[in-house]
Amino acid sequence: MTDQPTPPSDAPQDRPPPIRPPQPEQPTQWSPQYWQPPVQQPPPGQVPPWMVPPGQYGYVVYQPPPYNTLAILALVLGIMVLPPLGIYFGHKAQQQIAQTGERGVELAKAGVVVGWILTCFYGVFFVIWCCFAVQILSNAPQG
After folding, report:
1. Is residue 130 assigned to a domain?
2. pLDDT tens digits, one per residue of 48-70
3. What DSSP string runs through 63-94?
4. Domain total for the chain?
């Protein structure tokens, strides 16, 4: 067993320098060697050669059907404007959705339900208002 002293860790060791791959020279200014022509656009109606025609390769993107406009109107009109219009547009929207397969059945049903609830509420309010009006007019002094 030889007792050789170990060199300190901060002492320079005889290692070869790390090997780096050769780097290409980067031009310091514009040169025609590194110029690439601009991409030319294809004529209208044609697919560029680097694009894959839709549906041929890759994934098929599922596009859900749009919401029925009458269903949206039914809910908005039933809540904010005039509840009987919400009932009408809700029924019409349900008929259209059954024919076309659009989305919005829930909106149409909500428009009908909210329309009926608010119509009943407004009806009860009107009856109470009429009772108060009759009460006030009957107690008015006649003269």
Report:
1. yes
2. 666 655 555 556 677 888 999 99
3. -PPPBPHHHHHHHHIIIII-HHHHHHHHHHHH
4. 1
